[in-house]
Amino acid sequence: xxxxxxxxxxxxxAAIKEGTVIDHIPVGNALKIIRxxxxxAYNKLVTVGLNLPSRAMKYKDLIKVEGRxxxxxxxxxxxxxxxxxxxxxxxxxxxxxxxxxxIPENVEYVVVCPNPKCITNNETMNSKFKVLVDKNGLKxxxxxxxxxxxxxxxxxxxNN
Amino acid sequence: MKQVNLKGRDIIxxxxxxxxxxxxxxxxxxELKKKPQPKLLDGLVMGSxxxxxxxxxxxSFETAMQKLGGRVIGFADxxxxxxxxxxxxxxxxxxxxQYSDVIAMRxxxxxxxxxxxxxxDKPILNGGDGANQHPTQTLLDLFTILETQKKLSNxxxxxxxxxxxxxxxxSLAQALTHFNATLYFVAPDSLQMPDYICEELKEKKxxxxxxxxxxEVIKKVDIxxxxxxxxxxxxxxxxxxxxKNAFVLTSAMLEGVKNNLRIMHPLPRVNEIATSVDSTKHAxxxxxxxxxxxxRQALLALVLGKIK
Lengths: 160, 308
Prior knowledge:
Chain A is an alpha+beta fold. Helix content of chain A is 17%, strand content 36%. By secondary structure, chain B is α/β, with parallel strands linked by helices. The longest helix of chain B has 19 residues, at 285-303.
């Protein structure tokens, strides 16, 4: 069964037979997620919707990945860029599983510390952040330089 | 009261040192100030790793170790190390950790002390990592406040000068949240206390106000904590010229102040405290610098487990 709203979306981003739909991504972050998860590298169809109208978010981005289920580790990474995202696993055009991303307590590797004077930008090593959630959204505190950044301040993400 | 055990602990950042731990460190420092223990750390070696120039902090750490009977290895200039050949901090500290029982370090890069602590099991004492943290300075500041006021709680404390970039005043403000201080921030607008510190203070219900002149607060406070305003912080030298004299303390300004007022300064001082202040009973910055020796002795003895 395809719901009415799903039907409307299909007009904008084609349905997939098998795979994953990452929905409710804040506008501007879909391409970052594709780059972060390296979704384009698997020779699988990836369709993207940018600035789609959304009842809950006004506007949103959306990604559909054909033939591949995202892993739990990948969902953790998505959480940083899209804390409110829903992940739909699709089989035979139907949603067989709906997952909500959960915000992890710590984020390793994924985020590049925006502080150029941070040790993580001066030595070959992994970054590490503590995730702080407050009324204004998500903030990340660098484990090393101890600076706190809101999401808009983070310019670079990397995949391991 | 919670049992405090600092054996093996890294001293990297003020917010992760609890109130009981702070009080314990200050008590041990006081004991060591009263009663030196010249053989306490006999046979132990401190690695003194200063990747950035420092005189007071380095000499005070090294003297502290030697006064407790320990020995010191190390360097005061990274030019003499393999850092120049491109060696990572991680590798360098791993090796130095094999030679020494405890490491005191300063590094220009923020988070360097935390990184060093990952490289070695030996305790790291952070003597400054860029603009981030300098916890031993904050501990010696607290020791000095306690020594001069006989208490740490409910004091009126003014922080003066460069409050934006000065890591000393950030850490001190954070530490004072344990002690219900009333804080007065005296600085030019462009160098006022950063928002993230003010937010932290609000969360912890610490009262603070911002001021443009020392005279507005000097008669109310128990501690006047002066810092240096660096001309290079101003984009326009004219702006610096306008404000620099507003943040200079002279002996004439001390008329009518509280009897127990003590003036502190992390040093080096340039011209923000007139030398005429030095001879007043309120001047306490040189004693404050001396206290660094006892606080660092206490930290060395505690992290090495020689004092419980």
